[in-house]
Amino acid sequence: MISEENLNNAKTWLTNFFDADTRKEVQKLIDLNSEELNESFYKNLEFGTGGMRGTMGVGTNRINKYTLGKNTQGLSNYLKKSFPNEELKVVIAYDCRHNSDTLAKVVADVFSANGIKVYLFSELRTTPELSFSVRHLGCQCGIVLTASHNPPEYNGYKVYWKDGGQIVPPEDHEIIKEIESLSFETINFNADENKIEYIDKEVDEAFINASVENGSFGAKGKDDFSIVFTSLHGTSITVLPEVLKRAGYNNVHIVEEQRKPDGNFPTVKSPNPEEPEALAMAMKKADELNADMVIGTDPDSDRLGIAVRDNDGKMVLLNGNQTMVLMTRFLLDKWKKTNRINGNQYIASTIVSTPMMSALAKGYQVDYKEALTGFKWIAKMIKDFPMQEFIGGGEESFGFMVGDFVRDKDAVTSSLLACEIAADAKAKGSSFYKDLLKCYEEFGLYREKLISLTKKGISGADEIKQMMIDLRENPIKVIDGSKVLYVEDYLSSIRLNLLTGDKEEIEIPSSNVLIYYTEDGTKIAARPSGTEPKIKFYFSTKGTLKNATDYTAEVKKLDKKMDRIIKELKLN
């Protein structure tokens, strides 16, 4: 049943301001009395943890030239207010998704129509290169058109500020307020082509050089190290092979069936390296070639999936927490061996990632900083703590950042770092996998699992909302026989001790997240996704690993424990 409000919203898109194709499509939805009309017009598309993402189509709740044009008009107005005496410059990149190139040009047109200088990549480029380019080109702002690993019908719009990181408070709220104050009719689409400069190789060279410099650590054994790489039809094909080549890796085998950028992602169900199926083709090729490592990146090349050989020679996919802790451990080792750790350094992660990052920080006597989900919060730390040195950090969702030359998760440099770790380990008679087990022996065996429940549409959003309400109003007291000690509610910014009733304030920006901590070291977090119609539950358990030979048995114990908890919470 189409609501009268949604119908009236749709009719406003029938005026002559909107192009003929748009008017035709809106009229079709009205004539069909389609539920799609409700979905398209019941709200304005919102910014989430990774910018604005949504299904492409007509309507206020869809990605199209008008919603992105309105964003850009509001952003143009805000830039003029924020930098009144400066030449305004923005840089724009886009990925392989359908309409990304044309939408990027629309965004460039609106900026230029507002008198703002635009650097527009002439072809698709990675998100980390866009982040790098903001500071490299001296821009106040950057935009990338991408929906990361979402399905083919999605696209998105991520905004970066002058530091190269995604927008955070107070800029994000002020920009959104500026956008919401506008009507669609205020968008200036009349491009000033003299204000648009196309860029490519010169910026590519600068980024490649910076990536090699920050991701190389003098690893030995490169000639004897074999890599299978897949870009999953995305943007990393434009840069990662060259980065690996310049760093000395010549034994790189590309999955040819997935080389060509393609917004349909024809060979995978989902172009997400978090999903084992996405790397199946690469892992098969690795077995055929007896390769040492598989690397796979998502469409905009900010997420990295890695598969390595276990102690039995079988290729296994590591999760984001595992790659993050070993990469961080490696960086900490390098900093320690060169006497660069003096108490003024820190590593970082997010509240839903493995607690092992905190253990690493204690072991190496560096600070550990924790942020909300979303890499923009880790990038914000670099602004907030300029007197400290950022070594590296990541999040469980397959993202990592090496140093601060890029201010977002960077699968390009992180891929190189992973190769450095693995090649060096192999040359020394070890492996990436064996080094990970050594890490567990020293700092504790942590095991994590993620459950994502998809709830689409208006009813799905209401269901997710109710699930979070129920968890708040009826807090869990016991999990798998272990008492819950603390509940952290990031919406109210309160940490509650369930045993004493004492409350502490959480000094992290408010967010719709709940985290439970039990007596036996179990951690459970619940949060609605900021970019997808999902509610996510993150599980972390802790054990000990006295000897690497006990790893399989100890992991089984922790996995069984998580299975019991999932059943107890009725999430399976």
The CATH architecture of the largest domain can be named as 3-Layer(aba) Sandwich
Distance from N terminus to C terminus (CA atoms, Å) equals 32 Å
Please state roughly what percent of the residues sit in beta strands, choosing from under 5%, 5-15%, 15-25%, 25-35%, 35-45% or over 45%.
15-25%
Oligomer: single chain
Number of helices: 17
- Whole-number average pLDDT? 95
CATH superfamily of the largest domain: Alpha-D-Glucose-1,6-Bisphosphate, subunit A, domain 3
* CATH fold-level topology of the largest domain: Alpha-D-Glucose-1,6-Bisphosphate, Chain A, domain 3
Described by strand count, sense and barrel closure, the largest sheet is:
8 strands, antiparallel
CATH class of the largest domain: Alpha Beta
Helix content: 25-40%
Domain Alpha-D-phosphohexomutase alpha/beta/alpha: 46-184, 207-313, 319-439
Protein name: Phosphomannomutase
GO biological process, one term: carbohydrate metabolic process
InterPro entries: A-D-PHexomutase_a/b/a-I, A-D-PHexomutase_a/b/a-I/II/III, A-D-PHexomutase_a/b/a-II, A-D-PHexomutase_a/b/a-III, A-D-PHexomutase_C_sf, A-D-PHexomutase_CS, Alpha-D-phosphohexomutase_SF
